[in-house]
Amino acid sequence: MPLAAIAQLRSTSSPTENLTACLTLIQQASAAGATILFLPEASDYIAPSSSASLSLATPLATSPFILGLQEAARQHSIAICVGVHAPNADGTRVQNLHIYINSDGDITQSYQKLHLFDVNIASGPQLQESASVEPGSAFCDPFSSPVGKLGLLICFDLRFPEASLALRARGAQILTYPSAFTVPTGRAHWEVLLRARAVENQCWVVAAAQVGQHDEEGKRRSYGHAMVVDPWGRVVVDLGEEEGVIGVFEVELGGLEKVRREVPLCRRTDVYAEVK
Ligand SMILES: O=C(O)CNC(=O)[C@H](CS)NC(=O)CCC(=O)C(=O)O
């Protein structure tokens, strides 16, 4: 059975530093025999402000961070799922992207985050993602990878079951949520949401995560707990609060088929709308 690796990372506002950290993780994943590595949302950088994020965004084709990952994917013959930023068409906002680099180093799939994290919780956090980020307007159709059919989503998308159901309806076997959850919302909601998405979709769920403090001022901090959940809802990997680590796991698709056979989820679309 093919092996996969999931990473937990503390990105800073320096893409150069973050590339170095990611290259180490790629090396470790490859040495462990993984055919694919899942890296978190915003692996290229986490900026302390909207304006800083805008000024750091670089087109994929010329981004040293992306080119570095592509080269490493080729060298180690490993596929990479990773969250990154890119400027939008007119350069006024950034796109929050989840891209797939195949083991030849080519970017073959890309998904732009649909749901933006605009929250104002009195006791924190207060974050306005839409101030600097342009929302996407389409799914990326599930596609084959060394470990099964991948459905790409990002972080806050996790709170919208319809998005996962739509990808499942299109054939996803593995739902992936590269994330940078905040600490308070992570403590309250992270694991329960990931396990719910796995159970209700009868899919593997892979959620690479950012962890720790991203800037000196302490404005951005992430929850960690990068997690893999199997289609029965069992937590297979939980990377806790460690920084710069990977977890290795086997994606067992026979078990997925068994769960889908044993617990058929026949929807009552005569009563409520079908998610397509
Ligand atoms: O800012 C970047 O560059 C990277 N993007 C993020 O960190 C995003 C937007 S601020 N974070 C989330 O979606 C957290 C969701 C969350 O914590 C929840 O749903 O509870």
UniProtKB/TrEMBL annotation:
Pfam families: CN_hydrolase (PF00795). One of its GO terms (molecular function) is hydrolase activity, acting on carbon-nitrogen (but not peptide) bonds, in linear amides. It comes from the Eukaryota. This is Carbon-nitrogen hydrolase. Keywords: Hydrolase. CDD domains: nit. It comes from Sporormia fimetaria CBS 119925. PROSITE patterns: CN_HYDROLASE (PS50263). Residues 1-253 form the CN hydrolase domain. InterPro entries: C-N_Hydrolase, C-N_Hydrolase_sf, Nit1/2_C-N_Hydrolase.
